Amino acid sequence: MLRSDHLQGGLQAALACEVARASVGGLEPPCNSTRPVTRNISYVRYNQAMPNYATFLPDINVQPALYPLLDALPGKLAQAFDPSTHGDLSRWQDVLARLPVLQASRIDLDADAPCIGLPGDSNADIRQAIEGQLKKLHPWRKGPYLVHGVHIDSEWRSDLKWRRLSGHIEPLRGRTVLDVGCGNGYHCWRMAGMRAKLVIGIDPTLLSVIQFQAIKHFTGEYPVHVLPLGIEEMPGKLAAFDTVFSMGVLYHRRSPLDHLLELRGLLRTGGELVLETLVIHGGEREVLIPEGRYARMRNVWFIPSCAMLEGWLKRCGFRDVRLLDVTQTTPTEQRATDWMRFQSLQDCLDPATPALTVEGLPSPVRAIFLAKN
Question: Within 13 Å and on the Cβ side, how many CA atoms surround 302?
Fold first, then answer.
């Protein structure tokens, strides 16, 4: 039975914008369909602070395990999108308001650069306008994307990470998925491309959420949502997700074991954790705790060896722990571009000894673990 009280109150009442109602008839088109995507969609007018979350309501309302999240969301959204706490929010919202409404003749979320629309769906002036507006949301950390012929060449080649793991995880078709620290939602779209039933990304960085909204403006209403939350704001022991991803988050946590326990609490029994994080080469008792910065980052706390991290996972109650991949991060995968003009990996490595960071510590190596709850 649907929780109609939630649909008509709570979160809906908290929406501080004019929301759009989406009417999508029939079955969802294949994510790699080359046929026109026919949808009757009234797009949101981004003339107030909060983006449109109206379509989140029916997606979440049919899953009772997610009701605690729905209960907690109104206040958290209102706080996150309080204009008085974000000096750039009105500027970002103006970017969203100026994005043209286009019909995408093709949507392929299973491509290295998720493809939304083709160059022929618009003209050169419109493509130039799209690029100009999206670049105002600089820096784009995760990607790439291809939006009506505009290539968003992000700092990270996030597709390389996806290639390393996508063929080894449990199939996502029909699953409810959470991506913790999702950034602008690049991997959320790739999860949708694998036919996940519902994908929820969480990230406390508001610019990342706005970037996601910009991409969603062009895709239409897929069951993919990014919420401006940190994992500590999620209801405890929700046990609602079939798969939980945590990629590039663990080393930013002051208490890595608490983070692993939080992740486990979000998974249903038998659900799968996909964990990607920085590691060092070493034995089961070795962990790097930077005294100051690591690769110019202030908020890196613990970088364990793979053996130690496996022990942490088991100690936190995970089973069937498996090391999937260990890869040295290189400037091929992380670099400055026109869409991210700040310092990147190359600026964080010792020019004379690239195997070390500028602080003299081992340069970044990332591991991917799979584990079951």
Answer: 18
pLDDT in tens, 154-181: 999 999 999 999 999 999 999 999 999 9
Kindly report the number of other CB atoms within 10 A of residue 167's CB atom: 8
- Structure confidence at residue 47 (pLDDT): 34
CB 117 within 8 Å of CB 149: yes
Q: DSSP assignment, residue 355?
A: T
The 8-class DSSP code of residue 286 comes to -
Tokens of 350: 């010792």
With pLDDT > 70 as the criterion, what percentage of the chain qualifies?
A: 87
For residue 200, the cross-strand partners are 178, 225
97 and 45 Cβ atoms separated by less than 8 Å:
yes
Beta strands, E only, 80-130 = 107-108, 115-116
Are the beta carbons of 345 and 366 closer than 8 angstroms? no
* CB-based contact 310:370 (threshold 8 Å): no
Burial (0-12, 13-18, 19+ Cβ within 10 Å), 22: middle
Output the CA–CA distances (angstroms, integers) from residue 127 to 118, 120, 150, in the order listed. Answer: 10, 10, 6
If phi over 0 gives left and psi between -120 and 50 gives alpha, with beta otherwise, what is residue 181? left
pTM over 0.85: yes
List all residues 6 or more positions away from 301 whose beta carbon is below 8 Å from its beta carbon.
Answer: 251, 252, 253, 254, 256, 289, 290
Angle, CA 52 vertex, CA 153 and CA 230 arms, to 5°: 70
In this structure, the number of other CB atoms found within 10 A of the CB of residue 311 comes to: 15
Question: ∠ at Cα 271 (268, 276), nearest 5°?
Answer: 120
- Residue that is written with structure tokens 């999620």 in the block: 234
